[in-house]
């Protein structure tokens, strides 16, 4: 009987940390520092784990960043998917901008956009990370373009509007919002940017 129980017993020591909490902590570091600026010492300290535990649970630093980016998109960027469900392009644009504003003016997270920080601050050695971030940004922009084309077919956007150009404009506004937030712009200053973008929106 003892030999049977021994075979059924779990192998190895149980993990002594909450993997979700550790990943959230890693996201905060990457968000503050960018990929290259986040040292392993700061990551392990913030996550409350040793390097061997980090490698065992998440792989290397690159894999940890990608998992943190997944979390960022799933939790912090969820408003984007919701905005694309709006019935008119103006409602979509307003929800997109207000969602970004709410995220950038919250008190619990670093300011700025993780994607912008990581794609701009990456050097040659971290080019795979930069390429990964740019590819994800491209995917998000393509989803926005497709939705703008839907609005245009429904007559919600003028026929002379180029959906791709409008999507790039919105992306530029959203990125500008995050950059200014990261630079310390006030809520009122950021809100004025949102208001200006909405005043120039071509849809009904």
Overview of the molecule:
- The chain has 204 residues and is an all-alpha fold.
- It folds into two domains: 16-72, Orthogonal Bundle (Arc Repressor Mutant, subunit A); 77-204, Tetracycline Repressor, domain 2, CATH 1.10.357.10.
- It contains eleven helices and no strands.
- The chain has helices spanning 2-8, 19-37, 40-47, 51-58, 61-76, 78-83, 89-104, 114-121, 127-153, 163-182, 187-199.
- Helix 2 (19-37) crosses helix 5, helix 9 (127-153) packs across helix 10 (163-182) and helix 10 (163-182) runs antiparallel to helix 11 (187-199).
- The longest helix has 27 residues, at 127-153.
- The chain is elongated.
Keywords:
204 residues, mainly alpha, Tetracycline Repressor, domain 2, 2 domains, 73% helix
Short précis:
This protein has 204 residues and is mainly alpha-helical. Helices cover 73% and strands 0% of the residues.
Total domain modules: 2
Q: What is the CATH homology-level superfamily of the largest domain?
A: Tetracycline Repressor, domain 2
Give the number of DSSP strands: 0
Topology order in helix (H) and strand (E) letters = HHHHHHHHHHH
Q: Could you say which overall geometry the principal axes of the C-alpha atoms support? A: elongated
Structural class: mainly alpha
From the 3D structure, determine the CATH topology of the largest domain: Tetracycline Repressor, domain 2
């Amino acid at each position: 009987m003892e030999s049977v129980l021994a075979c059924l017993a779990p192998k190895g020591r149980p993990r002594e940390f909450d993997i979700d909490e550790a990943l959230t902590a890693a996201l905060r570091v990457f968000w503050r520092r960018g990929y290259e600026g986040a040292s392993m010492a700061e990551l392990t300290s913030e996550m409350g784990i040793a390097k061997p535990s980090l490698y065992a649970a998440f792989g290397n630093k690159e894999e940890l960043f990608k998992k943190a980016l997944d979390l960022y998109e799933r939790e912090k960027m969820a408003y984007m998917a919701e905005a694309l469900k709006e019935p008119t392009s103006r409602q979509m644009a307003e929800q997109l901008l207000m969602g970004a504003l709410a995220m950038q003016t919250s008190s619990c997270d670093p300011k700025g956009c993780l994607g912008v920080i990581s794609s701009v601050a990456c050097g040659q050695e971290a080019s795979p990370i930069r390429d990964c971030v740019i590819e994800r940004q491209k995917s998000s922009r393509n989803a926005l373009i497709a939705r703008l084309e839907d609005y245009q077919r429904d007559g919600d956007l003028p026929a002379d509007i180029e959906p791709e150009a409008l999507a790039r404009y919105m992306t530029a506004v959203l990125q500008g919002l995050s950059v200014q937030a990261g630079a310390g712009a006030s809520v009122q200053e950021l809100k004025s940017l949102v208001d200006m973008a909405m005043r120039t929106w071509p849809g009904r």
